[in-house]
Specification:
Strand order of the largest sheet: 2-10-9-4-5-6
Helix content: under 10%
Distance between the termini: 34 Å
Shape: globular
Radius of gyration: 13 Å
Order of helices and strands: EEEHEEEEEEE
Oligomer: single chain
Structural class: mainly beta
Number of strands: 10
Strand content: over 45%
Length: 115
């Protein structure tokens, strides 16, 4: 498995979660990495991205609430999600930015925000 996301779960509105993604070294070192999500019945959408040097970019819907980071020594990507809202409910995936077909998407990790 080249990209494995984990850390999802059920959380109440206003709560926090931290997602992790283990990536193979050849992917992590070559590409800008990011998080995407897909809500039920919706298309997959971009959430956040980070360059190897630490530059970040976020979707407007998560700015100020989510923080993306990476540990280049561990080939691991993170997404700290705070002040979660029901609209954040989705399956979250890590992937290159832009996405590359040859990498596949993996199973993702489900985040459910509900009281």
């Amino acid at each position: 498995v080249q990209l494995q996301a984990s850390g999802g779960g059920l959380v109440q509105p206003g709560g926090s979660l931290r997602l992790s993604c283990a990536a193979s070294r050849n992917i992590f070192s070559r590409y800008i990495m990011g998080w995407y999500r897909q809500a039920p019945g919706m298309q997959r959408e971009f959430v956040a991205a980070i360059t190897s040097g630490g530059g970040t970019n976020y979707a407007d819907s998560v700015k100020g609430r989510f923080a993306i980071s990476r540990d280049n020594t561990k080939n691991t990507l993170y997404l700290q999600m705070n002040n979660l809202k029901p609209d954040d409910t989705a399956v979250y995936y890590c992937h290159s930015v832009p996405p590359r077909v040859e990498l596949g998407w993996g199973e993702g990790t489900l985040v459910t925000v509900s009281s």
